[in-house]
């Protein structure tokens, strides 16, 4: 697969082991939108802070490895943006994060792979050097 990615992306993947860095997660979260049911238009989400997400995960008995905390932060906010009907509460969002990260036939780095695919499909470039 490495032959298909840029040198900067390969550098990023080596540095962060296929996980979100704080900068990349913040950029991704800052650009998340949800469909407003009242207007039918897309609107920016009101994101949860990384500290809030860590506390919510802890309060729900979910331990997140340190290397995955920003991936967890991204997923939690993605649940707000992409699954507003399914993940209505913080507990439901925390469970979504846990099940995604601990998928027995998956890998936590799949989250970043899916994000990269979304960006490619949307025609949005990811300037990896900004996130190193």
Description:
The chain is mostly helical. The protein has helices at residues 7-16, 22-30, 50-59, 69-82, 90-101, 110-122; strands spanning 33-35, 42-44. A two-stranded antiparallel ribbon has the order 1-2. A hairpin with a 6-residue loop joins strand 1 (33-35) and strand 2. The two termini are 20 Å apart.
Q: Ends: how far apart?
A: 20 Å
Radius of gyration from CA coordinates: 15 Å
Class inferred from helices and paired strands: mainly alpha
The percentage of residues in β strands lies in under 5%
Helix content: 40-55%
State the assembly state of the protein chains.
single chain
Low-confidence stretches: none
Write the H/E string, N to C.
Answer: HHEEHHHH
What is this entry, summarized?
This protein is mainly alpha-helical and 132 residues long. It has 6 helices and 2 strands. Helix 4 (69-82) crosses helix 5 (90-101).
Topology:
Blueprint: H1 7-16, H2 22-30, E1 33-35, E2 42-44, H3 50-59, H4 69-82, H5 90-101, H6 110-122
Antiparallel strand pairs: 1-2
Quickly list its features.
132 residues, mainly alpha, two-stranded antiparallel ribbon, 6 helices, globular
């Amino acid at each position: 697969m490495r032959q298909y990615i840029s040198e900067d992306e390969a550098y990023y993947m080596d540095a962060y082991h296929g996980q979100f860095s704080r900068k990349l997660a913040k950029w991704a979260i800052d650009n998340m939108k949800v469909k407003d049911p009242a207007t039918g238009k897309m609107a920016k989400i009101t994101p949860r802070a990384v500290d809030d997400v860590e506390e919510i995960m802890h309060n729900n008995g979910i331990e997140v490895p340190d290397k995955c905390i920003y991936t967890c932060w991204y997923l939690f906010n993605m649940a707000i943006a992409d699954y507003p009907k399914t993940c209505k509460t913080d507990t439901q969002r925390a469970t979504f994060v846990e099940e995604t990260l601990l998928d027995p036939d998956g890998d936590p780095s799949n989250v970043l792979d899916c994000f990269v695919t979304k960006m490619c499909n949307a025609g949005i470039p990811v300037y990896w050097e900004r996130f190193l």
